[in-house]
Amino acid sequence: MLSIGIVGLPNVGKSTLFKALTNKQVDIQNYPFTTIDPNVGVVAVPDERLKPLAELSNSKKIINTTIEFYDIAGLVKGASQGEGLGNKFLANIREVDAIAHVVRVFEDKNITHVHNKIDPVGDIEIIQTELDLADLQTKEKRADKKKSSPAGELPELDLLSEKKVIFVLNVSESQMSANWQPDDKLLEAMNGRDYVVLSTPLELILSEATEDEKKEYLAGFNMKEPGLDRLIKQSYKTLGLVTFLTTGEDETRAWTAHEGEAIPKASRAIHTDFEKLFIRAEVINWKTLLEAGGLVPARSKGLVRTVGRDYIITEGDVVEIKI
Ligand SMILES: Nc1nc2c(ncn2[C@@H]2O[C@H](COP(=O)(O)OP(=O)(O)O)[C@@H](O)[C@H]2O)c(=O)[nH]1
Ligand SMILES: [Mg+2]
Questions:
Q1: Ligand 1: which residue has its CA nearest to atom 11?
Q2: CA of 90 to the centre of ligand 1 (A)
Q3: Which regions in the chain score pLDDT beneath 70?
Q4: In this protein, which residues make up the domain named OBG-type G (predicted)?
Q5: What is the atom index within ligand 1 of the atom nearest the CA of 108?
Q6: CB hemisphere CA count around 179 (13 angstroms)
Q7: In what helix (H) or strand (E) does residue 146 lie, and over which residues does it extend?
């Protein structure tokens, strides 16, 4: 399963974010491969397509795709030199597929900032410097190894600064109401990478609220959906993933593939043997299927395509794999 590590300086809202995410943990019964680990939250990727498809097929179950979030203990200035949890922290980052970098934007005199001032740009630079310094050490070690084994092939370097990043700009509730947006300096520091703006205490409240309360809170803050939903969806995009779907009486289910993947490889998500056994597949866009009113009428209108091994899986495909 793909994983995102939550990182950031102390007291920026990482644990609050993680707690809100774990309130959205999926039902372990439907996801038997899920491990139970207090530092890992397995959350469903929200997908508005599943419900109407399930209604169309009279499905007994709906199963979303999932992402794992890891709460990685606080990074401090000097971590690459062993400060704080230092190298343990950096080792944890090495294991995740992408980083959610929480940046403190909210002001609160009662909650200390490690460097005593709210400075999102400076905070981003500190974390990036630590990641760069850790990479420098990795490269130096590599250079030493090369000297001692001149002929041997060494595995590719796993550099922290090359991991995909999504910035979580943690604002106050009043900034949220005022539709706070990053200024040019902050945009420059984020350097074109993805970001979401949210308020972690508000997200915690939303994650514990009933459906009615949730609607009320969202309307009050002029939000269409919880920030967590935006974060989860954005993480999925940042990781370069696409969703394809299967639907039937048993279940309507979303599956994860990588962008640009051919359908036999993508179908490994359903069953590892499918890549080898794949013969052909029937494919129809989810919306086209809904508009047609089901697979049977869609087939008779010629809307279902039969594709071979070289077909590239596309966001929103509903597939039936023939093996
Ligand atoms: N006022 C305010 N406090 C926050 C916000 N986000 C987190 N906090 C508080 O800041 C403190 C540190 O948060 P925590 O999530 O533990 O930060 P971590 O050290 O990054 O894990 C806690 O007391 C939180 O309740 C926020 O957006 N506004
Ligand atoms: Mg914490």
A1: 11
A2: 22
A3: 28-38, 74-76, 79-80, 82-88, 151-152
A4: 2-218
A5: 1
A6: 3
A7: helix 120-148
Same domain, 231 and 289: no
Q: What is the pTM of this model?
A: 0.86
In angstroms, what is the span from residue 76 Cα to ligand 2's centroid?
12
Of all protein residues, the one whose alpha carbon is nearest to atom 9 of ligand 1 is 13
The number of folded domains in the chain is 2
Report which protein residue has its CA nearest ligand 1's atom 12: 11
pLDDT of the residue at 19: 92
Cα–Cα distances (Å) from 221 to 102, 141, 174, 201, 228, in that order, read: 21, 50, 9, 13, 14
Q: In what order do the strands lie in the sheet with 98-104?
A: 40-44, 66-71, 3-7, 98-104, 164-170, 194-198
Q: What is the pLDDT of residue 206?
A: 95
Q: What is the pLDDT of residues 15-58, one digit of tens each?
A: 999 999 988 777 766 666 555 566 888 888 889 999 999 999 99
Q: pLDDT tens digits, residue range 263-274? A: 999 999 999 999
- Ligand 1 and 14: CB distance under 6 A: yes
Domain endpoint, select from 206, 238, 270: 238
Q: Ligand nearest 14 Cα, by number?
A: 1
Running DSSP on this structure, what letter comes out for residue 91?
H
Domain range spanning residue 299? 260-322
Q: Is residue 247 in a domain?
A: no
Q: Using a 6 Å cutoff on CB, does residue 106 contact ligand 1?
A: yes
Q: For ligand 1, is residue 273 a contact (CB within 6 Å)?
A: no
